[in-house]
Design a protein that fits this description.
Layout lengths: L9 H13 L4 E5 L9 E5 L4 H5 L4 H10 L5 E5 L5 H10 L4 E5 L3 H13 L5 E4 L2 E2 L4 E7 L6 E2 L7 E7 L11 E4 L5 H6 L11 E5 L3 H10 L3 E7 L2 E6 L1
Parallel strand pairs: 3-4, 3-10, 4-5, 6-9, 10-11
Antiparallel strand pairs: 1-2, 7-8, 7-9, 11-13, 12-13
Length: 238
């Protein structure tokens, strides 16, 4: 069933016009309709972000998170956006577990905070910070929508944000880290060499180019790299 309604499937293409007609204008509260995150409440733009509403958002990542997280574990969501994977992770780790969501973009972070409250999640901590190779400040550049910002790029619109490194965070160590950093994913990994070498960890990383996968392989020789789908990879220490 998941394949039948996956992004780009014939059924998905047939349903898209209907979803577009039914979707309200502007930000609205929706409940995810299918998949592991079914029932999660999100505040989204239902025209531009309908993939979140339908539950078809990055199905391979959803499946991997559902397989890897267990009650009591710790999950770090880097590039948490509006909370799709954050809230899913919070469900999976339960009250005894913890989720740390990192989202430097103010508009996204407001919606993320609203989603945490709407879903009654008490095990999520939101961090107003970007992750990079070095601590300090950097400029986030906008892409086509406010949901897409990156430390990489040279667009005219930008906002200065505080940066930390994985190694500088004073937090309980994670069992699973999801990284969606829009082009600076290797810089995020570079800032976590100590954290990523001191215990067995799993990483779900979206690499924007094949060259970045090669860089990450050189940086993390103790990790296996499994291609999941599209730009998404599962890295496991061994």
């Amino acid at each position: 069933m998941a394949r039948l309604f996956s992004t780009g499937s014939p059924a998905s293409r047939l349903l898209r016009p209907l979803v577009n007609r039914l979707a309200p204008e502007g930000p609205a509260w929706v409940a995810v309709r299918s998949g592991p995150a079914q029932g999660v409440r999100l505040l989204i733009d239902t025209k531009k972000e309908k993939f979140l509403w339908t539950g078809l958002h990055e199905p391979a990542v959803q499946e991997a998170i559902s397989r890897l997280l267990r009650p009591g574990m710790s999950f770090w969501d880097i590039g948490a956006h509006v909370g799709f994977f954050t809230v899913l992770g919070a469900r999976l780790v339960g009250d005894e577990g913890s989720v740390h969501a990192f989202e430097p973009v103010e508009e996204n972070r407001r919606r993320l905070q609203s989603a945490v409250e709407k879903n009654g999640c008490r095990n999520i901590t939101i961090h107003e910070v970007a992750l990079s190779a070095t601590p300090g400040e950097a400029v986030l550049h906008t892409h086509e929508s406010s949901a897409m910002w990156s430390l990489a790029g040279e667009s005219a619109e930008g906002v200065t944000v505080r940066c930390e490194t994985l190694d500088s965070l004073d937090l309980p160590p994670p069992d699973l880290i999801k990284i969606d950093a829009e082009g600076v994913e290797v810089e995020v990994l570079r800032g976590g060499r100590k954290l990523l070498s001191d215990a067995e960890r799993a990483l779900l990383v979206e690499f924007t180019t094949p060259a970045l996968v090669d860089e990450a392989r050189e940086l993390l020789p103790a990790y296996s790299f499994e291609h999941l789908a599209g730009n998404h990879w599962l890295l496991m220490s061994h």
